[in-house]
Amino acid sequence: MALWSGRFDQETDEELKKFTESISYDKRLYRYDIAGSCAHVNMLAAQGIVPEKTAGAIVGELKRIEQRIADGDFTFTAELEDIHMHIEHELIKALGDEGARLHSARSRNDQVALDIRLYLRDEIDAIADMLRNLQKTIVDLANKYRTAILPGFTHLQHAQPVLFAHHLLAYVEMFNRDFTRLQDCRQRFNVMPLGSSALAGTTLPIDRDAVCRELKFDDISRNSMDAVSDRDFIIELLSALAIFAMHVSRMSEDLILWSSREFDFIELGDAFCTGSSLMPQKKNPDIAELSRGKAARVYGALVALLTLCKGLPMTYNRDLQEDKEPVFDAIDTVKKILRVYPPMLASMAVKQEKMLAAANDPELMATDLAEALVEIGVPFRNAHHRVGAFVKWCKQHNKQLCDTTLEEMRQTIPEATPAFLEMFSPSKSVEKRETPGGTGPQSVDKQIRFWQKNLSL
To answer: Which helix (H) or strand (E) holds 169?
Structure first.
């Protein structure tokens, strides 16, 4: 019999039980439900609402239930709907009416709001640690290949030579923003809703601050109606995870391109690739491709929660049961990516000669010519036009920029000096870019040292 069945004359329809159950997925919250229940009953005892002896028995039985679930010695059934009712049912079965005292001054509305916050708090910490590991892996790669040069791209067109380490460190910056977003999110939702009851608080003399301290929240919620209906913290977390998934997808696209025969800049380890069922020669970067694809899955979770909440009236509505599957799936997906991505990156062999050959295109140094003109007093827009005309002249005469004579260069760049003929070296090009944040070797070395210090490498 359901714990709320006193109001009803008829048995619950079997299909309704299947339709309304959430135990199939919210059972992962059991540790948090029990932690919240222990803190709650300790407070009830301290306030004289429940006898001390009863509270001790309840805590002891809750711990036994927790161990049973952990050991797999616990039966879940759709009839009991969710994890809260399963645990309370077992408690009452073991302790009788004394176990029924636990639910004083609380509702499943504030109970689930508490459980999900406790759960997400731990998950954020775990994901943040995994993100740090990903960053460390990338910094190690940047340090290992700090002298490698490849073409930088805009519009997927060759643009300017950059250090490979500089390109990698761009992703360290992206993932660091993901890390700080998780920290901000955690701080914002570390507020305790328990004690809000169904929506209006309780007439019983509870001590919410005591529960807050025991469960290590920063504060208690100020408004009971908001506390039970708020799912902003889940939406914010999913937003942060979606942005992370987008960053992984972007990095995956680079890896996929670099692995292709056309680029041939890198080769991922065999242990992190798969073959074709038809073509024996294939070696596919499946982790990168699947990570790119799984971004859509995380986006879907975010959109699902936004859509779920957009039309809900105050306060709690059963619709909110649908918040858990998307957030559970998004968390599981992100953690799967973060488990396989660092070792895949660490397996990567970098073909520095191929990268350098691609960066050796003289046109990649066209901007260097324009900036050299600026240094001798030519306005940049004029310099840009003259170098552009020089590139066009070379194409018309089927010549590389580096193969022209000074006289030929001066047909479009009259200010050119013999030094201009020496500007078509990728290594010299990157060496000139030592502005803070630039791709110069000293600048990149500074970035590497910054991250080594901040990531404790």
So the answer is: helix 164-189
